[in-house]
Amino acid sequence: MHKSNVAIYPGSFDPVTNGHLDIIERGSRIFSRVITAVLRNERKEPFFSVEERTEMLERAIEQFQNVEVARFDGLLVDFARKMNAGVVIRGLRAVTDFDYEFQLALMNRRLNNQVETIFLMPSAEYSYLSSSQVKEAVALGGSVEGLVPDFVEDRIRERVRNNIKS
Ligand code: PNS
User: Which alpha helices (H) appear in the chain, and where do they start and end?
Assistant: First the structure.
């Protein structure tokens, strides 16, 4: 498969939201193969372990034939090269994302000029959705129905309960 048909969709996915799934679906219609790449080592302590984040993503993307889940650490562009991917997909929700995404895309281009970043816009209903807001809402007793798969909401609630107990 030519590398322009293979895209990496990287992120923390802590946890996966319907906004991520919206981008994955759009990507899967454009590219022959989409590799959802979960960042393993994060500077900040993640809410879910990399195993849990990967497992939830795997369950959430079951219906897409050409989408898979992988883990990575180190430089994203090195992972792209290893997977023979020519494209990095990032979701752009609102203008507030732009500055950070611009820096990331330009740094990645500087590191490897052969990997192109493309931005996809999620459906408007997910424009202001983020994993951190979802976690906060659930922790404070709110419902996030329609914003994450139901099993993800259950997992967050379970984790919050256990955190309170311990
Ligand atoms: O969903 P996120 O947390 O905004 O994703 C950020 C991510 C994982 C795409 C970014 O932090 C990343 O690619 N990290 C790996 C290290 C790297 O290559 N950084 C960019 C160049 S310094």
Answer: 18-30, 50-60, 76-82, 95-111, 131-139, 150-165
The residue from 53, 93, 135, 155 that is catalytic is 93
pLDDT in tens, 139-161: 999 999 999 999 999 999 999 99
**Ligand 1 within 6 A of CB of 76:** yes
Which pTM was predicted? 0.96
Rounded to whole angstroms, the Cα distance separating 68 from 98 reads: 27
**Does the beta carbon of 107 sit less than 6 angstroms from any atom of ligand 1?**
yes
Measured CA to CA, the distance from residue 40 to residue 71 in angstroms comes to: 6
Give yes or no for residue 17 CB within 6 A of ligand 1. no
